[in-house]
Design goal:
Elements: H1 2-8, E1 17-20, H2 25-38, E2 44-49, H3 57-71, E3 74-78, H4 89-106, E4 113-115, H5 120-133, E5 146-147, E6 150-151, H6 159-169, H7 185-200, H8 204-229, E7 231-233, E8 236-240, H9 241-246, H10 249-264, H11 275-279, E9 286-292, E10 295-300, E11 303-308
Parallel strand pairs: 1-2, 1-4, 2-3, 4-6
Antiparallel strand pairs: 5-6, 7-8, 8-11, 9-10, 10-11
Length: 309
């Protein structure tokens, strides 16, 4: 596994990295691999977030502290207060841990990446979950190995392989008992949908991963085609409404999505569904249309661009 991670190039020797450490087998495996791949425990830091949502949370924190002491890795522990307003608890927890790790990485003296222990199994579950909940081509692309500061060095590794690695290295981990329940949608995908698909075909998970890989390759072709439709002027992308309206519907949607994402600096879910409305904007004077995500399409004298609302 170490050589596989090294070959991936996300954790090169001499790099600086902050590892998201939950205490589970995948993150424990990642932390040990990161220290070995980078070659310097002092260049590796870990972040553990104790949400206080489970009775075992204190044990997980102590386990992470002991592991980091054993490996010689500096550990930052965050104990956030759960918002009283409720909301999506998993989304809140995700935002907290990524924000904490990003803050720590940006505070380092040299360029530092944030590493998450997502595996090939997580990739399959993510694709299936998004396929059911997000009607878009992007849902089938899965998680990227690198996304800004965030890297996922174990995306090509299965959960069984991280388990075997930890056992071979004598690394203990703590299991989250909630992963075995069906309270959360992701758990239902893991415990119900994936096994059901494997009953249909034993290579179901591998086929999902292969399909996603093919779509990502084809996506590069589509991205290039979208880029050919746009012009760069005054530091922004734009296209004439006449040209946009003449494009095939699929390409029109991709162009509008690219404009929205570029204006927001991130993905704007659902922007593409407004493509036909955008193409129908008035071609004289100035016209605007909300694309969601704090972004709007703006047509000025028949030329379209997107900007923050």
């Amino acid at each position: 596994m170490l050589e596989q991670v090294r070959a991936g190039g996300l954790l090169p020797a001499g790099a600086s990295v902050v590892v998201l450490l939950s205490g589970g087998r995948d993150s424990v495996c990642l932390l040990d691999v990161a220290v070995r791949a980078v070659g310097d425990a002092g260049a590796v830091a870990a972040v553990h977030v104790n949400y206080g949502l489970r009775d075992e949370a204190g044990d997980d924190e102590r386990h992470c502290a002991a592991l980091c002491e054993r490996l010689g890795v500096a550990l930052t522990i965050e104990r956030p207060r759960r918002p009283e307003a409720g909301g999506h608890i998993q989304a809140w927890a995700r935002d907290v841990r990524y924000a904490t790790a990003t803050r720590l990485a940006l505070g380092c003296e040299r360029d530092t990446v944030v590493a998450a222990g997502h595996t090939a199994d997580d990739q399959v579950e993510t694709i299936l979950y998004r396929l059911a909940s997000s009607p878009s081509r992007r849902a089938l692309l899965g998680m990227r190995p690198r996304d800004g500061l965030l890297v996922r060095p174990l995306l090509g590794v299965t959960r069984a392989e991280t388990t075997a690695y930890c056992e071979q290295r004598g690394l203990a981990w703590s299991d989250d008992v909630t992963n075995g329940g069906d309270r959360y949608a992701r758990n239902r995908v893991r415990n119900g949908l994936v096994p059901a698909l494997e009953q249909i075909h034993p290579a179901a998970a591998a086929n999902v991963l292969r399909t996603a890989a093919l779509l990502r390759d084809e996506g590069e072709v589509l991205d290039a085609l979208v880029g050919e439709q746009l012009q760069e002027r005054a530091g922004r992308s734009e296209i004439s409404l006449e040209r946009l309206a003449a494009l095939p519907p699929a390409l029109r949607r991709l162009v509008v999505q690219r404009l929205a994402d570029g204006a927001a600096g991130k993905l704007v879910p659902g922007a593409a569904k407004h493509a036909d409305e955008v193409a129908g904007l008035r071609r004289t004077g100035r016209a605007m249309l909300d694309l969601g995500g704090g972004v709007r399409a703006v047509a000025e004298r028949g030329v379209l661009h997107a900007e923050r609302s």
